[in-house]
Design a protein that fits this description.
The complex is a heterodimer of chains A (163) and B (574).
Chain A (H helix, E strand, L loop, with lengths): L1 E10 L4 H11 L3 E9 L5 E10 L1 H13 L3 E6 L5 E11 L4 H14 L2 E5 L4 E7 L1 H15 L2 E12 L5
Antiparallel strand pairs in A: 1-3, 1-4, 2-3, 5-7, 5-8, 6-7
Chain B lengths: L1 E3 H11 L4 E4 L6 H8 L5 E3 L4 H15 L3 E5 L3 H4 L2 H9 L4 E7 L15 H5 L5 E4 L6 H13 L5 E7 H5 L1 E3 L19 H13 L3 E5 L2 H4 L3 H11 L3 E3 L14 E4 L6 H9 L2 E5 L5 H4 L10 E6 L13 E4 L2 H11 L6 H13 L12 H11 L4 E4 L3 H9 L7 E3 L10 H11 L5 E6 L10 H6 L5 E6 L4 H10 L33 H8 L2 E5 L5 H10 L5 E6 L9 E2 L8 E2 L3
Parallel strand pairs in B: 2-3, 2-4, 4-5, 5-7, 6-7, 9-10, 9-12, 10-11, 12-13, 13-14, 15-16, 15-17, 17-18, 18-20, 19-20
Antiparallel strand pairs in B: 1-8, 21-22
The chains are: A alpha+beta (163), B alpha/beta (574).
Chain lengths: 163, 574
């Protein structure tokens, strides 16, 4: 089982998201994250999917996606140079002022920003690769206990720097 | 010119060459039926239930090669199509299913007879969409027919809200389609086929495995040429049956769970397996890791997702079956493999499918009589033991057609599909072979067959059980016949080990049932009466005939490979 990233161009129509997510559930594929948004062309949406699978299943997933009439292009990012980021908000509650200082230091180290400063809480906005967000969550939970977390799923784009 | 949506609908169907439409009225498709009422080019057939309706459209499509067209109302009309859509989807049958829908401003409000049919059918059809704007109507219908019939064919669902169909708009029906996400493969990768030729050169035991993709792409004739040209023996799946004459000297039989001994042996022992148009369903492979262990596997299929899905393939070829077979004809040789051919012949002799010693009225004798009396029939089966016996014993030639629900295994399919086949082939004899269980799942279509004066012959193999499940219960469940005895009544004991002289009367009486519908009914209990029954049925040219064959409930389908076992582990006798 390996983590993989796929990006799709799909028709921007009602039901297309349900079609894609339904494909994963009906075939028991392991979907980890899915983001969808408009593109420069208003008739086309772009979907970024993170999934866990073995090699054979991954080949099948790509073929099944390609089979969908509404899917225009399937891009496999497994061996592609990409920029990939995930937006995450994380709220640390019940923190005292020395803990807040510590959080600011962590934010600086991880290159994330403090976006909300409450009496007893801080909220970080993190735009990092998924793995780094995972690390940051672990660290903050170890230091401050339960945090409120909202993750947006990753978006990815191919880079041209090495071509 | 400005016309109503319903008028554009009729125009579109005429442009697509539709001559038959299977329709059932309701609040939300009656406007379309009203428009169809005013013309004579498209015959509108009224079945008695929407499930029967879609199976009839399916039988029409499979037997004519044209796209089957359904029109039903919203809500229950639409949901009654579900089983038929899934059946067609599995067996790659081109259908366009139009469903009525509540007016667009009511969608999502739980209006009367509203269901999200596009959502419900998403995972069981090739494409489904609601028309939300009158200006898209023509384009969407054009795309529906194109998608349904091209590439790997399949069912398409088009949901038509009432207000869209009543709205006035342009009368343009496009000539061409452009769908940026759908470009079915039309070419053949000749480099891949050359690899096939390379491995054939050194192969000592080559074998063709032919699935439903070959008949679908009308490649039966080309396949026979290829088999003659290469001298390579052939096994077929249930769906591929009839792709080559069953009397062809190189034809071995069907493989799989109820395949012939020789076909399963051939697959297990071959060294090159050239499979065309099959999905390697678990019913044909048995235990995956013992399937064709010694073979290099070539897989030719129009659907890339079918390749290396269940079986890891050595040479994948994404292509239409006919195009690939024609290309192979150009580059292959005649391969003399006398040892291999004689090994297959000796397996055939060792355990032939046909038994000669059986006494009484047996399925084999009935089917043999069909073989000798009907050289040019369309054979349609339901699902169960009778289907497997038919798959084993029916002789196929290029004068015959074979329709069966292979992938989904839909009981209730056979009879309505036979109605559709007869409507599409008015001059041909259509024979439906069903069980006493399956026939009752869509028995209401007797009224349709009578109404349209269809000279169908409906053979009911009555063993008073849901026989295929009963067979499993006999073999693997210690004869606990749970819920399989159709005679069982309130007065019966809870547990019962099988028929005895005190069993209640069978219900219904199929002869009286036939008569009550205005059809003919003949009951056959002895093998010597089979021929006379068929002769009598043949004379009944303006109405269907039911022939009820009373067969032994202990009659089993053999050989049998238990689910999940290796193809070589066949139960040959009990």
């Amino acid at each position: 089982m390996k983590k993989r990233w796929i990006s799709l161009y799909v028709e921007n129509q009602i039901g297309v998201l349900a079609k894609i997510s339904g494909l994963f559930s009906s075939k028991s594929y392991n979907l980890e994250s899915l983001t969808v948004g408009p593109t420069g062309d208003e008739t086309i949406s772009r979907i970024t999917i993170g999934l866990l699978s073995d090699d054979a299943t991954f080949e099948q997933i790509k073929k099944q996606l390609n089979r969908c009439i509404e899917v225009i292009t399937v891009m496999d990012f497994t061996n592609t140079s990409i920029l990939i980021k995930e937006l995450m908000f994380i709220k640390i509650k019940n923190c005292k002022s020395e803990q807040k200082n510590q959080i600011f230091q962590i934010a600086q180290t991880y290159k994330v920003s403090v976006r909300d400063y409450g009496k007893n809480s801080l909220t970080l906005e993190c735009v990092l690769p998924e793995k780094e967000n995972n690390r940051l969550i672990k660290l903050l939970q170890a230091l401050f206990g339960e945090c409120e977390i909202v993750r947006g799923g990753s978006v990815a784009i191919e880079t041209n720097s090495f071509q | 010119m400005q016309i109503k949506g319903t008028e554009l609908f009729v125009k579109a169907l005429k442009c697509e060459g539709v001559d038959t439409l299977f329709g059932y009225p309701g609040s939300y498709d009656m406007d379309i039926l009203d428009a169809l009422y005013l013309q004579n080019d498209i015959e509108v057939i009224l079945p008695r239930h929407e499930q029967g309706l879609i199976h009839a459209a399916d039988g029409y499509a499979r037997s004519t090669g044209k796209t089957g067209v359904c029109l039903v109302t919203s809500g229950p009309g639409a949901t009654n199509l579900i089983t038929g859509i899934a059946t067609a989807n599995y067996d790659s049958v081109p259908l366009v299913c139009f469903t009525g829908q509540v007016t667009t401003h009511l969608i999502g409000n739980d209006a009367f007879q509203e269901v999200d049919i596009v959502g419900i059918t998403r995972s069981i059809c090739k494409y489904s969409v609601t028309v939300r704007d009158r200006k898209d109507l023509g384009r969407i219908i054009k795309e529906a027919f194109y998608i349904a019939s091209s590439g790997r064919p399949g069912p398409v669902v088009i949901d038509l809200p009432k207000d869209i169909m009543l709205a006035v708009g342009d009368d343009i029906y496009p000539d061409e389609v452009f769908i940026r996400g759908y470009k079915p493969n039309t070419g053949v990768h000749i480099g891949q086929l050359k690899k096939v030729v390379d491995i054939l050169k050194t192969s000592e035991k080559p074998l063709f495995l032919i699935g439903g993709g070959v008949p679908i792409s009308c490649a039966n004739g080309s396949l026979t040429k290829l088999v003659n040209h290469t001298n390579i023996p052939v096994v077929t799946t249930i769906m591929g049956k009839g792709a080559i004459d069953t009397n062809h000297p190189l034809y071995i039989g069907n493989l799989g769970m109820h395949g012939s001994y020789s076909a399963n042996k051939a697959v297990s022992n071959c060294d090159v397996l050239i499979s065309i148009g099959t999905r390697f369903n678990d019913r044909i492979t048995g235990k995956i890791n013992t399937f064709a262990t010694y073979a290099k596997i070539v897989h030719i299929d129009i659907d890339p997702a079918s390749i290396s899905k269940n079986i890891k393939v050595d040479i994948p070829v994404v292509a239409d079956a006919k195009a690939a077979i024609k290309a192979l004809l150009e580059i292959t040789d005649h391969y003399q493999r006398p040892d291999w051919i004689s090994a297959i012949k000796s397996w055939k002799k060792e355990h032939p499918l046909e038994h000669s010693e059986a006494t009484g009225l047996t399925p084999q004798k009935i089917i043999q009589q069909i073989n000798s009396l009907f050289a040019e029939a369309i054979i349609v089966t339901d699902v169960g033991q009778h289907q497997m016996w038919s798959a084993q014993y029916i002789h196929m030639s290029d004068q015959k057609k074979w329709l069966t629900s292979g992938g989904l295994g839909t009981m209730g399919y056979g009879f309505p599909a036979a109605i559709g086949a007869q409507l599409g082939n008015k001059d041909r004899q259509v024979i439906c072979i069903s069980g006493d269980g399956g026939i009752q799942m869509n028995i209401q279509e007797m009224a349709t067959a009578v109404a349209y004066e269809l000279p169908l012959i409906i053979c009911i193999f009555n063993n008073s059980y849901l026989g295929m499940v009963r067979q499993w219960q006999q073999l693997f469940y210690d004869k606990r016949y749970a819920s399989t005895c159709i005679r069982k009544r309130k007065s019966c004991q809870l547990q019962c080990k099988g028929p005895n002289p005190n069993c209640p009367e069978y219900s219904p009486d199929f002869i009286k049932l036939a008569e009550s519908y205005g059809a003919a009914g003949i009951r056959v209990r002895r093998s010597e009466d089979i021929k006379a029954a068929f002769d009598q049925a043949k004379e009944n040219k303006k109405a269907p005939t039911i022939i009820e064959f009373i067969i032994d409930s202990e009659e089993l389908v053999l050989p049998m490979v238990k689910g999940g076992q290796s193809l070589e582990d066949m139960i040959l006798e009990c």
